[in-house]
């Protein structure tokens, strides 16, 4: 189905980058992300101190406090 949408420049740029990296169309990427958002049950989000935590995907590295401390030390 075709429809004209107004999409913020930064969102479109991110979708274009992702589409190129995944060899997909921008429309496919935006549709996929919209589906994920629609099907996400906010009551099932992991929360810490009132902030929703991002899901860890297979192969992603979990960033710990130790990572942050090490980077802070490198900046000093």
Give a description of the structure.
With 76 residues, this protein is mainly α. It has one domain. The chain contains 3 helices and 2 strands, in the order ααββα. A two-stranded antiparallel ribbon has the order 1-2. Strand 1 and strand 2 form a beta hairpin. It is extended and about 50 Å long. The model has no long low-confidence stretch (mean pLDDT 89). One of its GO terms (biological process) is regulation of DNA-templated transcription. This is CopG family transcriptional regulator. InterPro entries: Ribbon_hlx_hlx. It comes from Granulicella rosea.
Question: How would you describe this structure in keywords?
Answer:
3 helices, two-stranded antiparallel ribbon, Ribbon_hlx_hlx, mainly alpha, 2 strands, 76 residues, extended, CopG family transcriptional regulator
């Amino acid at each position: 189905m075709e429809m004209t949408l107004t999409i913020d420049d930064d969102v479109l740029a991110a979708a274009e980058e992702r589409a190129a990296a995944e060899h997909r169309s921008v429309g496919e990427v935006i549709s996929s992300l919209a589906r994920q958002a629609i099907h996400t049950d906010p009551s099932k989000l992991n929360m810490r101190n009132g902030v929703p935590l991002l899901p860890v995907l297979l192969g992603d590295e979990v960033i710990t406090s130790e990572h942050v401390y090490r980077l802070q030390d490198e900046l000093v």
